[in-house]
Amino acid sequence: MPAPDPVELTVYGREHCHLCHDMIAALQKLQARLSFHLKVVDVDSDADLKSRYGERVPVLVSGGQEICHYHFDPVALARIFPQITV
């Protein structure tokens, strides 16, 4: 039986955003013990993303579904991905 594909999480944020850095650091710490892909996208690099997210960053998304924004919410992440226990 093949292993399931690892979860892919995307953080939409900005380079000079302390909340963004905090969320990324929390996810990287979690990633040290759990298997998932983490992608970081600078919303200022794309006009559509900048328009969509505005000042509401960071936003954690997977498969088009928003998990949380502003602060990392491990409970919200576990609701969507029970295999990622926090």
Descriptive account of the structure:
With 86 residues, the chain is an alpha+beta fold. It has a single domain, classed as Glutaredoxin (3-Layer(aba) Sandwich), CATH 3.40.30. The protein is built from 3 helices and 4 strands. Strands 2-1-3-4 form a 4-stranded mixed β-sheet, with helices on one face. Strand 3 and strand 4 form a beta hairpin. The termini are far apart. The model has no long low-confidence stretch (mean pLDDT 90). InterPro entries: Glutaredoxin-like, Thioredoxin-like_sf. It comes from Nitrosospira lacus.
Output the keywords.
alpha+beta; 86 residues; 27% strand; globular
Global mean pLDDT = 90
Tell me the distance between the termini. 26 Å
Structural class: alpha+beta
Please tell me the total number of domains: 1
Total DSSP E strands: 4
Strand order of the largest sheet: 2-1-3-4
Q: Roughly how many Å is the radius of gyration? A: 13 Å
Proportion of residues in extended strands: 25-35%
CATH architecture: 3-Layer(aba) Sandwich
Low-confidence stretches: none
How many separate helices?
3
InterPro entries: Glutaredoxin-like, Thioredoxin-like_sf
Protein name: Thioredoxin family protein
Organism: Nitrosospira lacus
Pfam family, one: Glrx-like
